[in-house]
Amino acid sequence: MIPRLMSTQHPDNVYIPFFASSPVMGGEDEVTEAFYAFNVLGMGEQMWDFEGKEVDEFVVKKLFERHGHFFRRRRLGREFRLTPRVPNPSVEKAEAKLLLETLETIPRSADYARIFYSEEAAPIFEVILPMATSPVELNRVYELYRRYIAGKQYKRVYDIKLHEWIGEFYPKEISVIPLFETKEAILGAAAVVAEYLKGKEFEYQRVFLARSDPALNYGLISAVLYDKKALFDLQVLEEETGVEVYPIVGVGGAPFRGHFTPENVDAVMDEYPSAQTYTVQSSFKYDWPTKEVMKAVERVKSRRRGRADPVPEEVFSLLKKYEERYSRELKALAPYIREIAKYVPSRRRRKLHIGLFGYSREVNGSALPRAIKFTASLYSIGIPPELLGLSALSERELDEISDHYLGLYRDIEFAFRYFNPSVVEKFPFLGPLPEMAKSYERDEGHGEITSAILSGQPNESLVVEAAGIRGFLG
């Protein structure tokens, strides 16, 4: 059973979960969170993020020890999945050896499961490889586990083979889920996956398309259209190869990052009907009443996967001027984003990231924050990032795009609710936006807070108060 929802550990929530021991969630809290996602909310999968986070590598053992009655009835690895996100050594050199350590936990977790279930069982059998760009990277991880993690059991240690001494390594192989994050990688996803599948007898292949970092890199509209093009190409690949392809779309709470909230799940499923799995981030889980969250989860789980529609090439021709305008506005705002980001609270213990724009990127000689703090910072000064680059497009062009980006006007309307027209005094290059904003209702309370932050009074309490009004941090 391929999960419809993947619970993540991304800290985009305003409120601290009831089970957290402190405002910054650590390893023990996240073990509890995984069980909460499975047992209370009904999520089918928990992403376990070794890439850039200090998570508990004994999570399987602790879940069995603390919640044994639950997992005897509902098997981990069958009814529920725990899927590690591992570092990509091609990009994250400082974390490269953590890939080895993470892969080593897979057969150890299988040992715990074998003892717990009294039979061979693999609670973990897939990993997510971020920042994937080529089939070579995927094959390296696949072969690394097959030959050097599970395969080493047949090597002799002094007078005995390794598996005879410390037990067999199981599973014998794992699946690698590529996470495509750049424009080039997303548009080339089907070709990369096609090459990776050669010579393998997989029943299915999961593919992860990012939504937050592409929006940060290229703007909201481009991020949506690139993902939709990739989803159609993956559908064609499935038909050509006969291997079922199950896409994952990495959506978050703000429209800029996917607009996946309990009240908007149906619209997101309409936008990406061929996606099998949608990521459920912290804001979805903790910033809404639990009953609403559970109802939304059930709506997603009860809906069958649909088919992707093609996006005409002429629509993509509109993106060049949009991305150029987005990039110019972003460069001008970068110093203010960095300044406000200092007041956006962290909710998870994270390691330093290096690499892509979504992790660290030079703009005017300085790095921008990650997507969550980036989004929170812009909302906090009354400039929702959904609006950047928008003035480059005419009404006719927006209408043309809306035929394929179905939620375009809904997302724009949401963003203008939190736009502060007074920003033009400080940022005159945003001049066209106040006129556009006249067609939309504004949240005056949010506007008062952003005015205070703009006037040189930023602090964490104001940032959090504004986030509480709109229903998410970033």
From TrEMBL:
Enzyme class name: lyase
Record has Lyase as a keyword: yes
Cofactor: Mg(2+)
Gene Ontology BP annotations: carbon fixation; oxaloacetate metabolic process; tricarboxylic acid cycle
SUPFAM superfamilies, per the entry: Phosphoenolpyruvate/pyruvate domain
Keyword Ligase carried by entry: no
Domain of life: Archaea
InterPro entries: PEP_COase_arc-type, Pyrv/PenolPyrv_kinase-like_dom
Pfam entry (one): PEPcase_2
Any one GO MF annotation of this record: magnesium ion binding
Catalytic activity: oxaloacetate + phosphate = phosphoenolpyruvate + hydrogencarbonate
Record-listed E.C. numbers: 4.1.1.31
Keywords noted in UniProt: Carbon dioxide fixation, Lyase, Magnesium, Pyruvate
Described function: Catalyzes the irreversible beta-carboxylation of phosphoenolpyruvate (PEP) to form oxaloacetate (OAA), a four-carbon dicarboxylic acid source for the tricarboxylic acid cycle.
NCBIfam families (UniProt xref): PEPCase_arch
HAMAP family to which the protein is assigned, alphabetical: PEPcase_type2
Subunit structure: Homotetramer.
Similarity remark: Belongs to the PEPCase type 2 family.
Protein's name in the database: Phosphoenolpyruvate carboxylase
Top-level taxonomy: Archaea, Methanobacteriati, Methanobacteriota, Thermococci, Thermococcales
Underlying gene: ppcA
